[in-house]
Each structure stands twice: as C-alpha cells, then as structure tokens.
C-alpha cells in the first residue's frame, strides 16, 4: 500500500458541538481539537511498457549505422586497391628483378632522366612506363632473335660434313 499524509478539516458548527459536549463552545479560545488519523489505501501503478525511443528514430539510426558499415567496407576496399595492391606489385617486381640478376638495363635506358635531342638542344625527359616497357620488349625480342640466329648458325651443317655422316650410317 501507499502511505500519504492528508489533511482533513471538520466543520465546526454549533449544533455538532452542542450535541457532543452539551454546550456552545465555538468561540472559546482555550479549547483546540487536533485530530490525526492514519489510513492505508491500495495503490496501483499502470505499467504501459513502451520503448524509450520512438520507432521512426530507431529506424533512422539503424539506417545510418548500416550506411556507416557499408562505407567502412568500401573505404577498406578502396585503400586496398589504391595503396596495397600497387605496393605488393612493386615488391613483386623488385623480387623478380633480384632473382633475375642476368638481365640488366642498358646504359641508354634507365628509369632516370634520359636525354632526347630536340630542335632546341638536349632536354631532360622522363620516360613514361609504357615507353620503357615498349623499349624493353623490343630489346628482349632482339636478344631472342640473336639467340635463335646463333642456334641456327651452329646447327647448320656444311654439306661435306653431312655427306660424311650419312655414309657412316
């Protein structure tokens, strides 16, 4: 139950006091009656359980959180594509180059500044990567061609040697 202090007021009428005491004492100053009563009352709470946050606000915050997660995955993907992948590719190229020590860049081709003659004289010009790849490709083709030419010159036999070998079999 619930205890609550309440104040109740009794009306002082001459008739009620005359019935109780038999005298009229309404205007007598020396007599004051103070009555204190305790009573217990039943007390019920109406418990309507509702969420603290509104449903529309909850949906909006959920949508914001999902968008944040998607953006974090997209940012991670972008960082991997733009930073990590080229870095790993660079390490792989350096590793392949260190394992393949026999191939060296010619002195005229380097990744540093290469001088090209222009009408105004010598100008520093940095080769672009595709130009460097093209020049390296042509150099490799020339080396392969030289190797195949050496092999074909060595395997070509003189007609006199061929006749001697065929007679022995």
From TrEMBL:
Q: Quote the protein name from its UniProt record.
A: Uncharacterized protein
Highest classification ranks of the organism? Eukaryota, Metazoa, Spiralia, Gnathifera, Rotifera
Q: Which organism is it from?
A: Rotaria sordida
Q: Which of UniProt's keywords are assigned here? A: Membrane, Transmembrane, Transmembrane helix
TM segments?
58-80
């Amino acid at each position: 139950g619930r205890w609550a202090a309440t104040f109740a007021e009794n009306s002082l009428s001459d008739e009620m006091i005359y019935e109780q005491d038999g005298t009229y004492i309404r205007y007598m100053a020396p007599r004051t009656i103070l009555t204190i009563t305790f009573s217990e009352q039943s007390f019920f709470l109406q418990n309507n359980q509702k969420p603290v946050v509104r449903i529309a606000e909850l949906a909006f915050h959920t949508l914001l959180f999902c968008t944040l997660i998607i953006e974090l995955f997209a940012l991670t993907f972008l960082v991997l594509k733009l930073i990590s992948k080229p870095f790993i590719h660079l390490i792989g190229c350096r590793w392949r180059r260190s394992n393949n020590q026999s191939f060296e860049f010619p002195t005229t081709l380097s990744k540093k500044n290469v001088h090209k003659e222009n009408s105004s004289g010598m100008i520093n010009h940095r080769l672009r990567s595709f130009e460097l790849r093209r020049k390296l490709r042509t150099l490799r083709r020339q080396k392969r061609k030289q190797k195949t030419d050496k092999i074909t010159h060595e395997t070509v036999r003189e007609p006199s040697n061929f006749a001697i070998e065929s007679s022995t079999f």
